[in-house]
Each structure stands twice: as C-alpha cells, then as structure tokens.
Amino acid sequence: MSVMNFAVIGYGGMGSYHVHTIMPEELIHVKGTYDCSNERQVISEEKGHFIYTTYEEVLNDQEIEAVLIATPNDSHKELAIKALRAGKHVVCEKPVTLTTKEFDEILLVAKETGKTFMVHQNRRWDPDFLIVRELYKNKQIGDLFQIESRVQGANGIPGDWRHLKVHGGGMLLDWGVHLLDQLLFMIDSPVKTVAADFSYILGDEVDDGVAAYLTFEGGEKVIMEVGTTNFIKLPRWYIKGTDGTAVIEDWDLSGKMIQPTYAPDVLAPTPIQAGVGLTKTMAPPSEEATKTLELPKAEAEYTGFYQNFYDVVRHQAEPIVKNEEVYRVLKLIETIFEAGETHQVLPFE
Ligand code: NAD
C-alpha cells in the first residue's frame, strides 16, 4: 500500500490541524505546504516541511497526487478548480463554497477531469452526534420528533476573515454548515419548510449567530442554533422522542435520557407552588413514573475520513461524504439566508 503524496494549501489553524492531528501517516505523506502568508510559511518551515513558494509550484509538482484546501471560504473554488485541472485530487474544507453556483463549477471540472473532490465534513464523526444518530436509528426513546442542536460560545466571531462577507464569514457558513450537515445526514426524509433568524449583535456585517427552524416530511421538527454571545449556554442537544427525552450537555458527552415507566398505579404528581400559583401539570413526575437511563454508546474512528478518501481515490470506494449531500446542505444554507432576510417560512425540496 503506497502512501499518497499531499500538499497542504493554507497552513493556518485548520491546515496545521490536518497535518499534525488528522492525516494518518500510514496513508498520507505531506510532501509540503503552501500559504500566501510569509509568517505561516516560516512557521511551517520550522516544523520541517518543504515550502512551496507559489501555488503553481504545487500544481506543477508531478509527485503531488492530492491537495488539501484549508484557506478562507471564498478561495476554495478557484484553488479547487486549478488543482483538479492540474490532475490533483482534492480534499476541501467546509463550507465547500459560498454558493451552489460556485459548487456547480467545481463539480463540472471534477467530472471533466475524473478526479476526486471530497469535502471535509468531519463532524459526522463527532461522538455526541453519533449518539444522537444511534437514538434516531434505534429508537431508544421512540421516534424523534423534536431535535434541537446548538453550539453556543461567548467569544464573538474569531479571527480576521470570518468577520467579512467577501471571505464567506459569519456563523451560518462557519458552524451552521456542520450542524446542518449532521442533521441532513441523519434524518432520512426531505426538508419541508425553513424559517430563520440571524443575529448581528456584535455589529459585524456578517451574522454572529443564527437560529434555523426546519420541518421535515417525516414529521421531525428541528431547531439549529449557533451563537457567539451566549455567556450561559443551552445543552448541545435536546431531543424529544415519542418515548422519552434525551439531553447531551456538551462535547464531554454528559447527559441522560428519561423515559416513562408505564408502571400501573403510578401516583399523580403532587402539585407544586410555581411563582404565585399552584401547578400539577408542571410538577416533577412522581418517582415511579419515570426512569433515568445512560446515553447509548456510539463510537467511530475519526481517521475514517482520510481512510475513505484514500479508498475512493485508489480503490473506487464509495465516498462517505458525497458531493450531492454537500450540495443539499449548501442549498439549504442559501434558503436559510433567504428565509432570514425576508422573514418568511420558505418551502424546501
Ligand atoms: P486560518 O485563517 O487560521 O488559516 C487560513 C490560512 O490560509 C492562513 O494561514 C492564510 O494565510 C492562508 N491563505 C489564505 N488565502 C490563501 C490562498 N489563496 N492560498 C494559500 N493560502 C492562503 O483559517 P482556518 O480556521 O484554518 O480556516 C481555514 C478553512 O478551514 C476554512 O474554510 C474554515 O471554514 C475551515 N475550518 C474547518 C474546520 C472543521 O472542523 N472542519 C475547523 C476550522 C476551520
């Protein structure tokens, strides 16, 4: 099994993470890196990498079989098309492009050249998502009819280019693309309607947060939320099924599931004082009425992404991240932008 020679384009936060953390040495050899910033070139050189001084130099290197594109979002299209035309396979960071029109252009060239183009939708391997997917498939709390997926921070929009529209900044394109990719990958019915609300609290020209409300033909209702001004955050996942409720607090996988016991002779809940009133409806259920369960286990090897890319290129395996799936997510993102701008509930699919 011969290793695949890669060049890494953009040795910033994510490019260096690929090199040092994700790319399995037994499959991938990083022959060199190229970054348009001199500072990043120096840092990469200090790490012992060969430095390409221009992108053309990468494209002309016959030993390079594939490139990783890990540059700001607006540059993906041009870099990808050039690489495909130079006969290279491409791994591209998310979001693949800013519009479906741009993605169409890449797909056309990938088809013409017969080269593999695959997007790094790595959060399909996130352990918290794998648990939710397990719940969805195996129905431990019944059919999931309300799924709330949230990531919330309090540090504002990070870095430089993420603040600017021209570079494809903003949180829908940054984190939203991950959460939507997970949801569409998991839920096996078409999206019916889309509503959305963006936040611009920090005064940037791009969104610093977004909430999208999706309904699916299968009956699922989804809230997808990204925030960067949340000093107190809500759980990563809150899920209601026809037979219980599950919560996953965070990436540390803390959380639980609570199910009804359906025990006969369950005592009615004792009314509680709530504010200035009394309630039985909102009182905690009596002890014998529910049981608390641990979240199911679900694991996957993260190196699966590059293993799959390697197998797609070398052995014509089926890609785990399919371009048509990525396209559907991008189309949904376009609809979310439109729904937010027009304050309308829009049909989808
Ligand atoms: P970054 O700013 O840390 O790094 C980008 C690097 O690209 C910089 O070093 C910059 O100098 C370089 N660059 C810019 N334009 C270039 C060009 N035309 N040619 C060569 N180099 C160029 O940004 P980042 O956080 O690493 O993000 C890069 C990409 O990775 C983005 O598309 C982002 O959405 C994605 N990303 C993905 C994940 C994930 O989990 N999949 C996480 C973070 C970032």
UniProtKB/TrEMBL annotation:
Q: Which InterPro entries match?
A: Gfo/Idh/MocA-like_OxRdtase_N (IPR000683), Gfo/Idh/MocA_oxidoreduct (IPR051317), GFO_IDH_MocA-like_dom (IPR055170), NAD(P)-bd_dom_sf (IPR036291)
Residue ranges of domain Gfo/Idh/MocA-like oxidoreductase N-terminal in the record:
4-120
Question: What are the GFO/IDH/MocA-like oxidoreductase domain coordinates in residue numbering?
Answer: 130-246
Q: Which domain of life is it from?
A: Bacteria
In its UniProt record, a GO molecular function of this protein is: oxidoreductase activity
Q: Which UniProt keywords apply?
A: Oxidoreductase
The record ties this protein, via Pfam families, to: GFO_IDH_MocA, GFO_IDH_MocA_C3
User: Which family does this protein fall into?
Assistant: Belongs to the Gfo/Idh/MocA family.
Designated name of the protein: Gfo/Idh/MocA family oxidoreductase
